[in-house]
Amino acid sequence: MVYKAVIFDIGGVVLRSPFIAIAAYERKLGLPVNYLNCSMCVLANIVVTDSHDLAIAIPKLPQTLKVDGRELFGSMMREAHQYDPYVREAILRIRACGKFKVIALTNNFAKVNVPEEEREFLGWSDQGAVPDELKSLFDDFCDSSSLGMRKPEKRFYMLACERSEIKPSEAIFLDDIGL
Predict the structure, then answer these.
(1) How far is CA 88 from CA 29, 73, 91, 95, 138, in A?
(2) Cys-Cys with 175: which of 9, 18, 82, 90 at CB 3.0–4.6 Å?
(3) DSSP state letter for 31
């Protein structure tokens, strides 16, 4: 097998995971581990099956809770704005060797005009959630909010390969969440 590209997820791989901030928020409120993740899955109508491969245990969920969405989202964005130094160094070394394309494939949200004080609160530059410095690490940056598809849609992965003129079998994909 000859590999031609390495495809990186962003959140939880290149940048720290927003799940770290969610876990900290749960601890702050004295909630069971994974309470908020499970609640968000239920709210998003994500069906969780009885699988031995399921990585998180589903806690008994209280009926009511007051969550400050701004505070939670802000802490998630600030946490997810920090590079994993080892992965960043690996990307730089892969690019320096010149043998592989380096591609980003990430779920993101639409870019909107965010007031300056909110950008500061979220830890964003005036460039928003995806600063040019992050984009510059990659030969191609496949962002769900601009391409109109999301992981785990097969078409999203295929488009990343097509844009870089590689076959899926010629790429290694690094993600923090198994599918």
Answers:
(1) 33, 24, 5, 11, 11
(2) 9
(3) P
Q: Which of 120, 24, 116, 117 is nearest to 81 (CA)?
A: 120
Beta bridge partners of 104: 8, 141
- Please tell me the total count of domains within the chain: 2
Cβ atoms 38, 19 nearer than 8 A: no
The values of phi and psi at residue 146, to 5°, are: -100, -20
Q: What is the pLDDT of residues 78-136, one digit of tens each?
A: 888 889 999 999 999 999 999 999 999 998 876 677 788 888 888 887 777 788 899 99
Q: 145-149 long-range CB contacts below 8 Å, 24 or more apart?
A: 145/108, 145/109, 145/110, 145/111, 146/108, 146/111
Residue 38 belongs to domain spanning: 18-58+65-81
Contact 68, 103 (CB under 8 A): no
pTM recorded for the entire structure: 0.79
CA distance 64 to 62: 6
